[in-house]
C-alpha cells in the first residue's frame, strides 16, 4: 500500500522513532507546531478513527497509552500537553492513516494545534 505512515512504521522510510511497541510507533512531525510534536501511528493501516472496528479495542486503547508514554519521555507530562486526532476532511486530516498528535512544550490555546 502506498501509505507514507505504513512505510515509516515498517521501516521502509527511515525515521527517528522515539517510541515503539507491539501496536504503534512514534516519530517527530515533519512540520512541528510546537517544541514537542510527535505522531503516534498504529503499525496496522487504519484510515482514521472513523475506520476503527469494534475488534480494535486493544489497539485503540494502546494508542492513547503510547501517547502518554511519548509525553512522559518528551518531558511534558507534568506541564501538560495535548493529544489531537484529526478525522476526515472537515476534521483537517491530511494523511489517511490514523495518527495521534502529541503536542506540547509551550502554552497551547484554543482547541487545535495553535
Ligand atoms: P493531519 O493533518 O493528517 O492530522 O496531520 C498530518 C501530519 O503529518 C502533519 O502535521 C504533517 O506535518 C505530518 N507529516 C506529513 N507527512 C509526513 C512525513 O513524511 N513525515 C513526518 N514525520 N510527518 C509528516
Ligand atoms: Zn497506512
What is this structure, in a nutshell?
This protein is α+β, with helices and mostly antiparallel strands. The protein has helices spanning 4-9, 57-74; strands at residues 19-20, 24-28, 36-42, 81-84, 100-104.
Describe the structure.
With 114 residues, this protein is an alpha+beta fold. The chain has a single domain (4-104), classed as HIT-like (HIT family, subunit A). Helices cover 21% and strands 20% of the residues. The chain is built from 2 helices and 5 strands, in the order H-E-E-E-H-E-E. The chain has helices at 4-9, 57-74, and strands spanning 19-20, 24-28, 36-42, 81-84, 100-104. It has a 5-stranded antiparallel beta sheet with strand order 1-2-3-5-4. The protein is globular. The mean pLDDT is 96. The structure holds guanosine-5'-monophosphate and zinc ion. The site of zinc ion (ZN) has 5 residues, from helix 1.
Intertermini distance: 32 Å
Low-confidence stretches: none
Helical run tally:
2
| Strand fraction | 15-25%
Number of structural units classed as domains = 1
Tally of DSSP β-strands: 5
Which class of secondary structure composition applies to the elements?
Answer: alpha+beta
Ligand catalogue: guanosine-5'-monophosphate, zinc ion
Order of helices and strands, N to C?
HEEEHEE
Question: Whole-number radius of gyration?
Answer: 13 Å
CATH topological fold name: HIT family, subunit A
Q: Specify the biggest β-sheet.
A: 5 strands, antiparallel
Mean pLDDT: 96
Q: Give me the side-by-side strand order of the main sheet.
A: 1-2-3-5-4
Given this structure, which CATH class is correct?
Alpha Beta
Share of residues in helices? 10-25%
CATH homologous superfamily descriptor: HIT-like
CATH architecture classification name: 2-Layer Sandwich
Describe the global form. globular
